[in-house]
Specification:
The chain is mostly helical. The chain contains two helices and no strands. Helix 1 runs antiparallel to helix 2.
Length: 64
């Protein structure tokens, strides 16, 4: 996959990071277990997307 072909993956990462930021603010203000669970879910999503993105970058480097 070329860098311009994974624009969707990049956009997804930015979207989920914004959602993480909002959940983090909620967790800091509320401090509830539910807000902590939602925050951890966003962190897991970010990790999943970052892993995919890392593979794309690694594959691109191998092609070059």
């Amino acid at each position: 996959m070329l860098p311009d072909q994974d624009e969707e993956l990049h956009a997804e990462l930015l979207k989920v990071f914004r959602e993480y930021f909002e959940e983090n603010q909620r967790w800091l203000s509320e401090g509830t277990k539910a807000s902590a669970v939602r925050l951890r879910q966003k962190l897991s999503e970010i990790r999943r997307i970052c892993s995919k993105r890392r593979v794309v970058v690694r594959e691109w480097c191998r092609v070059k």
